[in-house]
Amino acid sequence: MLRKKKITFVINYFYPDLAATSQLMTELTGRLQNEFDITVIAAQPGYAGENHGSKKLFEEGYLESIKVVRIKLPEVDKNSKVSRIKYISSYFLLANIALLKEKGTDVIFTISQPPVLGGLIGTIGKLLKRSRHIYSVHDFNPEQAAAVAYTNNQAVFKIAKAVDKLNCSYADQVLLVGEDMAETLKGRFEGKTVPSHTVISNWTDENAIVPLEKDEPAIQEFLKAHGLQDKFIVMYSGNLGLYYDLENLIQVSKQFVDQPDIVFLFIGEGAVKQRIQEYADKNNLENVMFLPYQPKEFLKYSLNAADVHLVVNQKGIKGVSVPSKIYGVMAAGKPVLGVLEQGSEVQRLIFESGAGVVIEPQNYQGVVHAINYLKSLDPEELREMGLKGRVYLEENLTRDTSINKYRHVLQSVAGAPELKTSYQVESRP
Known about the structure:
Blueprint: E1 6-12, H1 20-32, E2 37-43, E3 58-63, E4 66-71, H2 81-101, E5 107-111, H3 117-129, E6 132-137, H4 143-147, H5 154-170, E7 173-176, H6 179-188, E8 197-199, H7 217-225, E9 232-237, H8 246-249, E10 262-267, H9 273-282, E11 288-291, H10 299-302, E12 308-312, H11 325-332, E13 336-339, H12 345-353, E14 356-359, H13 364-376, H14 379-396, H15 399-414
Parallel strand pairs: 1-2, 1-5, 2-4, 5-6, 6-7, 7-8, 9-10, 9-12, 10-11, 12-13, 13-14
Antiparallel strand pairs: 3-4
Helix pairs in contact: 2-3, 3-5, 11-14, 12-14
């Protein structure tokens, strides 16, 4: 019997972490564990303040047949650059050590977290271990950091971009989560050989998140518990991070204070949560509410409590990052108010599916008009708009579709026997 190929995933976030990347990678490795010998190297859970009591630098355990190596890292204050640097540097050093200790790795799978250094772990590992490397880019950096002026140091920007170009060119396969990101990759290597790459969309479990009406008992209980009965809920559910312009978008809520039936509900954690909470408190915005991340098993209810979902990105993020919350919103069959650049991946999905409306980033008055427009629609018309997203997702963006594409790439790079699938994945030269 042939030895199963060993894939070592160095992915920072993993079960039971609440980060979107954790949920995606946990599902991916779980679905592939019978075909590959899988090791995951990840930080101890802590994305949303999860507690862990381990004092060991490296702690090994198993999730079913997946070997999991946990790295103990310092607590991070996402509002502090110094704290972030300390966290990222510790992760980079310890993840490299953990990877080098792994024996018999055929393929190293890394993601673009932490920025640039996530890919560099794979570059170093490939060089030292003579393994192959798959680099999964969820966010292009330093382009993402530049879009929000995270640093104005051009020397740092140029060095970081050069390093990440090296990561891409040295990888055996680059994976991208959007067609617009493929254009960014090509732009990085204009006039030169573009690394071999494949576009694979992120996903949600469309069987776990399904359209539900607001009279569902669990949804009614949720609404009642938070005083949201008979409210038109504009929801943002996910990472309250640096790249979504939330500090300006929160100001839109001031223009709806005379419409008490409209509520802006932010569910999640992140670097700007404290700032936008302070803005709401300072301005006595009773139409704004904040809740922590909801348990994964409750998402099908919390997502369906909304009338409209905000899916947003900062200006300049087109081709750099794809907000994965769109897949959960489409699975729930809810209308989308996208604040997104024309030609971006999610703008394309909303346009092709007809599941909502899109406003350009920084057009705040346009956002106001869009909310008023969506609220003015007949409830059945609004419902049908959202369900178009569900239909589109079932036809184009299922979990099996994306995981089968990952399976094909891993088999190809690892040199493992391929299983028959109903389609072929295009690998772009």
